[in-house]
Design a protein that fits this description.
Aminopeptidase; 5 helices; GNAT_dom (chains A, B); acyltransferase activity, transferring groups other than amino-acyl groups (chains A, B); 6 strands; transferase (chains A, B); alpha+beta; Bact_Acetyltransf (chains A, B); 33% helix; globular; five-stranded mixed sheet; homodimer; acyltransferase (chains A, B)
């Protein structure tokens, strides 16, 4: 059975390993020993922010999935809170077992608990499987996701 | 000359008026006197959160533009901060004067000041002019923007 909990600093190694073990992630993450300090600082900032949650999915003691949730009070849509999902990954060893869907379903429930009126994410247009996955779960690709590196 | 500053509670009326005076916004905002309480609560939550900034553009004393910036510490991209822009609007009276571009250029500079490595936004696929506007400013539509109402 899969359980979900807030990540602790001890999970960071497993999390970065999952982020790096990905077609796009492998080009931009650095899974090294020791972990680059930037990951540790980001974890600390997330952990200290009540509007950010780094969530791990566990199979027994093993960390097999991760996602980050951000809760934002927006002035638009009549001043409603919104949840944003980012960095969804599952461990290669458990792919195809529906753990990704369980992660997202968990995020949807958590967003409702937090009083959000919308949940959103962006996915790289190169990830055609991911787009179908999210559409099956009820998301609609109504928007263009625009990015600029600084 | 356009100046930019953090919005105060006194600007909320002008802000909601701009949000509602928009093809898509008119279907989902409520510009009424008094303003619905949800806008006031959202303003208070934004104002209390160091990672959210509601910014107005002013021409003299007059509020002629608005945007909300959210700064998020992400574990992805080697644990880098990211800025998200939402709810960009300019007053109908000043459209076509480049104030929208100045808002976004201001957001880009603010994101750099905050140490962000990326700036991002989503725009409704129905807003074809907006897509071209953001692409001209250097954004790339590399992602699908997926949403689900809760």
């Amino acid at each position: 059975m899969i359980t979900f909990r807030a990540a602790s600093a001890k999970d960071l190694n497993d999390i970065v390993q999952m982020l790096a073990d990905d077609e796009l992630g492998s080009t931009r993450e650095r899974y090294e020993t020791p972990l680059p300090e930037s990951y540790i600082k980001a974890f600390e900032a997330i952990d200290a922010d009540p509007n950010n949650e780094l969530i791990v999915a566990c199979l027994g003691e093993e960390v097999v999935g991760v996602q980050q949730l951000t809760f934002t009070p927006y002035i638009t849509h009549q001043g409603s809170w919104r949840a944003t999902i980012e960095g969804v990954r599952t461990a290669a060893s458990v792919r195809g077992q529906g753990i990704g869907s369980q992660l997202i379903e968990w995020a949807i429930e958590r967003a409702k608990e937090r009083g959000c009126r919308m949940i959103q994410l962006t996915t790289d247009k190169k990830r055609t499987d991911a787009l179908r996955f999210y559409e099956r779960l009820g998301f609609q690709a109504t928007h263009e996701g625009l990015k600029m590196k600084l």
